[in-house]
Amino acid sequence: MAVAEHSAGSSARLFWRRSGGALSALLSLVVTLLGLLVFTFALSHLSPVDPVLQIAGDHASESTYAQVRASLGLDQPVPLQFWHYLEHLVRGDLGISSITNQPVASDLLRTFPATIELATCAMIFGAVFGILLALLAAWKPGSVLDNVARMISLLGYSVPVFWLGLLGLLLFYAVLHWSAGPGRLDDIWIYTLEPKTGLVLIDSWLSGDMEMFRNAIAHLWLPVVVLGLLSMATITRLLRAALLEESSKEYVTLARAKGASRGRILLLHIFPNVRGTLITVLALSYATLLEGSVLTETVFAWPGVGRYMTTALFASDTPAILGSTLLIGGCFIAINALADALTYLTDPRTR
Predict the structure, then answer these.
(1) Which of 123, 204, 256, 319 has the fewest CB atoms within 10 Å, measured from its CB?
(2) DSSP of 234-271, one letter per residue?
(3) Residue 303 — φ and ψ, nearest 5°?
(4) How far is 135 from 302, CA to CA, in rounded Å?
(5) Residue 299 near residue 165 (C-beta atoms within 8 A)
(6) Using an 8 Å Cβ cutoff, are 203 and 194 in contact?
(7) Residues 6 or more apart whose Cβ sits within 8 Å of residue 265
(8) What sections of the sequence does the record tag as coiled-coil (predicted)?
């Protein structure tokens, strides 16, 4: 009886501990999202651009100015304006873009798939080569392979993305003609493709036109490599450090004493124990690619959220800027929350 009561008490304590951890994580996520909303709202009020003048014009009369200001709700107290801002967000209303004269939400739905496609392909490129370089570097620390991996990682951090993109266009597009150049498709196909998913690779494949599909790849590979070098550098550097730190632990020394090979220890013992770090690094890299694609999309004329935000900045389109900021920030928070959940589920040490 005493053993059963003790077991039941332990199970109850474990349940409440896990429930408390889940509630704490959920509360942290809600607070972070609320902070992001407060930031975007404050950004709109701190902007030097007057939204009333953008609508009414610089030569509007005082009565017209006051009427437009009242219609926008800017004559109300700031807390009430924030409440109305939340109400509009719940309904999916992010305002009207002064550039396209379309709802910002519609513009983001149209441009976000292009950013997802570019960032996902770059993430796959960076993850495959980044993990491979980190494993090679940790296999023989201080060797030529290790020095090459560290040099590539340093270059990925040091070289500006926009400069690398311009250099890539000059070499592979203008000189060697290996790339199809800026944009997602040539003009001959861009207006004939039926946008089913918004992802050009998938849509061109579904269309059955293999020439269009090859053209999409020809446009995609260069910005993917340029953007993927950034994630590859991050993954190589952080994963290499985690592998080398894990290599100094006692179970690795014991495996070596039993005669296990260096490659077997690295792949079967060390690498599985850094999966929590790997998940976190991959999540942070992917989130960085989503928010860091602004310069890459601008250089390659890639019609994604980054280019949309850049155009909005030059045109002082406040609703478009705030909507883009909110979207990318929300994605960053969601990806980090997903990484924490995956780390908790796959790594028993985090429990």
Answers:
(1) 256
(2) HHHHHHHHHHHHHHTSHHHHHHHHTT--HHHHIIIIIG
(3) -80, 60
(4) 33
(5) yes
(6) yes
(7) 252, 255, 256
(8) none
The H helix count followed by the E strand count for the chain is 16, 0
Q: How far apart are the first and last CA of the chain?
A: 29
Sign of CA dihedral 333, 338, 343, 344: positive
Which one, of 227, 240, 200, 249, lies nearest residue 349 by Cα?
249
Residues in the chain: 351
Compute the distance between CA of residue 284 and CA of residue 273 in angstroms, rounded to an integer. Answer: 19
Q: Which amino acid is at 24?
A: S
d(CA 168, CA 220): 13
- Cβ partners under 8 Å of residue 274, min gap 6: 239, 242, 243, 246
Q: Angle 163-164-168 (CA atoms, 0-180°, nearest 5)?
A: 120
Question: Distance of alpha carbon 176 from its chain centroid, rounded?
Answer: 31
Q: What is the pLDDT along the chain (351 residues), one digit of tens a residue?
A: 444 444 545 555 544 455 555 677 677 777 877 887 888 778 777 777 777 776 777 777 778 878 877 877 777 888 888 888 888 888 888 888 878 889 999 999 999 999 999 999 999 999 999 999 999 998 888 888 888 888 888 888 788 888 899 999 999 999 998 999 899 999 888 888 888 888 999 999 998 889 999 999 999 999 999 999 988 999 999 999 999 998 888 888 888 888 888 888 888 888 888 888 899 899 988 988 887 677 888 889 899 998 898 888 887 787 888 888 888 888 888 888 888 888 878 766 666
CA–CA distance, 323 with 316 (Å, rounded to integer): 13
Are 316 and 49 in contact by the 8 Å Cβ rule? The answer is yes
Show Cβ contacts of residue 320 under 8 Å, excluding neighbours closer than 6 positions: 95, 97, 98, 99, 104, 107, 308, 309, 311, 312
Residue 96: strand, helix, or coil: strand
What value does the CA radius of gyration of the chain take, rounded to a whole number of Å?
25
In which residue are the tokens 């100015």 written? 65
d(CA 104, CA 95): 6
CA distance 278 to 263: 19
